[in-house]
Amino acid sequence: MVVNPAEAETIKKISRLFLEGMTPYGISRQLESDGDLSPSRKPKWNATTVKRILSNEKHKGDALLQKTYTVDYLTKKTKVWHSTDQYRKVIWRCNHKYGGEKCSTPHLTEDEIKVAFITAANKALADKDTVIETFRLIKDSVFDTSALEQEKAELTDELNIVAGLIQDGIYQNAHVAQNQTDYNREYESLTSRYEKAKCHLDEVEAEIHDKHSRRKSIEHYLEILQESKEAVTEYDATLWHGMVEFVTVYSKNDIRFTMKDGTEIRA
Hints:
Elements: H1 5-19, H2 24-34, H3 47-55, H4 57-60, E1 76-81, E2 89-94, E3 108-109, H5 110-126, H6 128-142, H7 146-175, H8 180-227, H9 237-243, E4 244-251, E5 254-259, E6 264-266
Antiparallel strand pairs: 1-2, 2-3, 4-5, 5-6
């Protein structure tokens, strides 16, 4: 497969926006706004195309390993009322509303959520100096991966050793008469040992990646705080995706934003 330079830049852009917290739907709207062409060379994008690119092994690389995403940027489902007339309104409703579970969470309009975000964003900005300084003091210890890297190296050595023993056993069995019951028992023991080490290695690599991703996400969030000199007066989608991890709605008067650094702010 040959990827042309323009397509490669678009793929990099999609990966960057995704790692910054933007959903596939949000990315598709951003690409359309920026005039980027889709793989079919059309100006129209959709979330399905973005998700396919993100999940494509030929594109995603190490940067997206073990990364998961949520299609909706809130734990709500969208519903459009009066979609074809002047009363058109986008509302958000609980995921469990039609799933057989009772849900007391109210419907929220998109405008209500945006207003709540503006309030939360300004509260975050008001306390930004404390947040930035706290992160500076703890980042090296909280996101240290040296012990995990050492464990990764040891597990890699273990895999190489066991793989060598398996290959030696196969070679010997092919050239020297052996008791096949004993051979199969030894082979199964070695393969089990290999799979156990491989599973452990995958877990360690995922933890390393998670620490790196979380640090990058928080650093991006703090850059936004540092660069924001004035109060937020209107909704900004880029600001949302750079600041918000998720939102929890308890009631219309209790909407809480969990920011990228883990801080919970009640709007």
